[in-house]
Design brief:
Elements (H helix, E strand, L loop, with lengths): L24 H16 L19 H36 L2 H4 L17 H24 L3 H17 L1 H8 L5 H11 L6 H15 L4 H15 L4 H8 L4 E6 L5 E6 L2 H18 L9 H14 L4 H10 L19 E6 H4 L7 E3 L3 E3 L1 H10 L3 E6 L18 H10 L16 E4 L14 E4 L1 H9 L3 E4 L6 E4 L5 E2 L7
Length: 489
Amino acid sequence: MDFPPPAADRSSATVRSDEAPWPDEDTLRSDADSAWAITLGLVDEDDPLGAAPDGEPSHGPASLLDRLEDSSTARHRAAAAEYDLILRVLQDALDDPAVWVGPDPTLDGLWHDPRGRTAAAVRRDRLDMAERAAVAEMAVRLRLAEQTVRTRAAHATVLRERCPRMWAEFSGGRVSERHAVETARLAATLPADRDSWVAFDTGALDRALRLAPARFATSARTLRERVHAESLATRHDRARGDRGVWMTAELDGMATLTAFLPADRAAAAMTRVDRAARHLATADDETRTLAQLRADAFADLLTEARPAEAAADLETATGGSRVRASSAGPAPARPGIVVTIPALTLLGVDDAPAILDGYGPIDLETARWLAGEATSWIRVLTHPITGAPVALDRTTYRAPTALRRWLGLTSPTCAFPGCARPTRECDLDHLHAWSEGGTTDDDNLDPECRHHHRLRHESRWAAGRDPDTGGLSWTTPLGAHIDPDPPPF
């Protein structure tokens, strides 16, 4: 909701019937300005007038905007301090890894590495694990992704080394975090050429002090092209190596599919999808928007999961270039579905949603459609209260397929706090080591991605299961206790 500022054309002061004068124009104006600022949330209702730096009350939007500007500067300064502290923690971890991974075993004259590594290799691994352990501790304490912590440290490193003027202005609060991050992102792609760094730092700072973030990003990219020592063709050949496709889960049973492609192929793909959508839009009974038609055409071209009539229309729209199962392309993939059925839903008492492996909750109608397309079923009937596991073989080290499937349902992601890597991509770690009598069962196994699996065994991170709740809690190298994450679904 928009709140217009108080009107400036008020009538002049009048006199009340009891001869007591009304407040003068300045007082009325100040009261109206204060009410407006309170409505917008710019000031505290308990202190609507605020206070100037010298302790005198301040009035009017100009003073409020001065305070707003000071607050913004303080926020930018605090963000820069956070980046600096993250970098300092990581530098300290490299200077003194014993805090994070314990004493150096290679200093013992009788030391022998059971894995056959040299002393130099062990010391390199210790530094790597110390950095990983420090990143993980900052991530869980700040409730950030580990990649975010690493990225902020990398940005701080680039700004300090390649753009010292921008870093100084960011640290002083005169440049926003978005300006600084975009500067670091672009500067990191410059070659190891100090002249290029100086030119980019100078030009980027000049633009950052004058432009809003969106316009700055465009201008800074142009500046980067101008000062870059390598040709665009060379850079493009290298950038092609980063191409890929990934999916991001969204709300309400939706997802975003993203492809990072060379510009020419991306433009050609978008042209083909747009042409197909515009052809389908010419049908007399078509009610979908052009955006919806593009999305449907895109999905149809990739999956071929559509009725015959739509397939024929799409084949015509794309110039008859549809790939058939009998051609060089693979046959359309048919979904393999893992369906978790709560007992009350199975009995018709509840309507809890189905869980699509690797995504999360989906509506039952979609689940039924997927089930109709699937060639096989894996059905797991869970207890409505305890979710008790099925009986499985507990006499072997390697988890059998049924146990891995079960753990994929009860623990859909890596057990480390904040890690969202799906269980199917994780190691199954014995909490009580197999070599020490631990069993291979759901009570003693937890999925851990390879990174966090190594972290638990090669650093001072430790894990333990709560005997009452069964949850896996963690203790950081500095002694902080981290509760398990709530279940993702």
